[in-house]
Each structure stands twice: as C-alpha cells, then as structure tokens.
Amino acid sequence: MSLLDLIAAADERGLAAGAAACLERCLPQPAPGDEPDPLRPLWAGCADPGLWPGRLAEARAALDSLADPGEPVGRVRELLARAPDDRAGQELRAWADACSVLALEVHLGHDATGPAAADRVARCRAGDPSGAGPLLAGEVARQVLILEMLAGIDDDAPAGAGLRQVLDVSTEGQRVLRAAAARRARVRVRR
C-alpha cells in the first residue's frame, strides 16, 4: 500500500501516533537547556484519547519554550496549533496527513540529491519513489512501517500496544536526520 492509502485506512490511534512521530522527527537537536523531547507528552494522548487534549496542550507549551525555534520548529509549532483537540474524525486525518507532508519536506530539504522538488514528495506518498534521495526514501519507508505496525495491532490489545516500537523507529529516524543536518552544516562551513 502507498503512504496515502495507509493514511486513508488508519484508525485514530494510528493517525495520532503517526503524526506525533512525524513531527518528532522534524525537530533539530535541542539547544543546551531546552527540553530534549518536547513532544513526548503526545505519546500518552496517542494511547488514550481522553488524555489527548491535555497532552496536546503540554506539547504545545514545551515547544513554545524552545530557545531558538528555527524553521522546522516553527512549522511543527504551526501544526501543533492546528491539531484537533478531539482526537477523532476527518480533522485528525487531515492533520496527520499534513504532519506526514512536513516530515517528508524536511527530509527532502536535507537530501543531497539536488534541488528540492515538491512533486517528489507527492510521488513518494503515492508509492513512486523515483528520484527520491536516501533521506526522503527512508522517511517514506519509516512512515509506511509505522502505519503498518499500528494497523497490525489487534483491536483487543491494550491501548498503548505498539507505541514503544513506533517510538523506537521514530527515534532512529530522528538520529538519521540530525546526523545528515550536522553533516550538511559542516560542509557549508568548509565552503
């Protein structure tokens, strides 16, 4: 299934967790003194829809307290502001879709395969990775894996089932992007 198909088929927990993971991977290395995981409160809201509004507010406050937001943080902040307080319905699906796009655009921006092209993101989301660099292709694969993992969890499983594995996959993706961003910054300094 393509990423678009998986987002269209995901349940509310899958949408919330997939979106939280996407946003988390967009955040740069925290500055000294910053909260290391400002979006961590969202994960409890992914497991329990009753906790979602309060945890969303906590994540918004934590992200607002970051010292130097930069462009990706600003875009994550905008998406958090647009997140539905009720973890349900089409608003949640549209929000999760926007989080997916942001994560792909951030990865495309760090890919060393030439100028960023928005159509690459659209093609990758539709299942055609041609022309995608390694970071973009890796992020598409990561999003697909996360949504497939969440879709494969039995309906009778506890609410938090699978979220630890999703968090592990997301954290590894965050490390990859941060390393690529650091490498790119070193190259710019040498020029």
Annotation field: number of helices? 9
**Main sheet record:** none
Q: What's the shape? A: globular
Q: Percentage of helical residues?
A: 55-70%
Order of helices and strands: HHHHHHHHH
The overall average pLDDT, rounded, is 87
| Distance between the ends | 42 Å
Estimated share of beta-strand residues: under 5%
The beta-strand count equals 0
Structural class: mainly alpha
Report Rg.
16 Å
Low-confidence stretches: none
List the defining traits of the structure above.
191 residues; single chain; 69% helix; mainly alpha
Summarize the structure.
This protein is mostly helical and 191 residues long. The chain contains 9 helices and no strands.
Topology:
Layout: H1 3-9, H2 12-26, H3 40-47, H4 52-64, H5 70-82, H6 89-110, H7 118-125, H8 134-151, H9 163-190
Helix pairs in contact: 2-3, 2-6, 2-8, 2-9, 3-4, 4-5, 5-6, 6-7, 6-8, 8-9
Would you write up a description of this structure?
- With 191 residues, the chain is mainly α.
- The chain is 69% helix and 0% strand.
- The chain has nine helices and no strands.
- It has helices spanning 3-9, 12-26, 40-47, 52-64, 70-82, 89-110, 118-125, 134-151, 163-190.
- Helix 3 packs antiparallel against helix 4.
- It is globular.
- It starts with a helix and ends with a helix.
